[in-house]
Amino acid sequence: ALTQPLHEALSLWKQLLENPGIPNVRSPEQTSTSLHILASLFRLQAQPIQALESFLLLRSLCRRLGDNLGSSNALSEITRILLQLECPSQAQVNL
């Protein structure tokens, strides 16, 4: 019950970012920060799959924005989660 708002937020971010291009938001940078916070909260709640999904959305957004540092940071987090999930081959593909 405590994570229901997080799941709803993830669903909304997925809908917003499903179309190609930069989403129509007030501040793309703030959107990136919000996605990072969402992923971190999922990680704190021991929900690695949802954290992974959030970081994948963040990586996608950062690539669209041309934010190479943000994209590489998201990729690093994705790899870390995949290694925690004991998926080294998937982690290697992401690198």
Characterization of this structure:
- The chain is mainly α and about 100 residues long.
- The chain has one domain (about 25-95).
- The chain is built from 5 helices and no strands.
* Integer-rounded radius of gyration: 13 Å
Mean pLDDT, rounded to whole units? 90
- Broad structural category: mainly alpha
Name the helicity range. Answer: over 70%
**How do the helices and strands follow one another from N- to C-terminus?**
HHHHH
Number of domains: 1
Q: What assembly state would you assign to the polypeptide chains in this entry?
A: single chain
Global morphology: globular
Number of helices: 5
Which properties best describe this structure?
95 residues; 77% helix; 5 helices; ESPL1 protein
List the helices and strands and how they pair.
Elements: H1 4-17, H2 28-44, H3 48-65, H4 68-84, H5 88-94
Give me a quick take on this structure:
The protein contains five helices and no strands. The chain starts with a helix and ends with a helix.
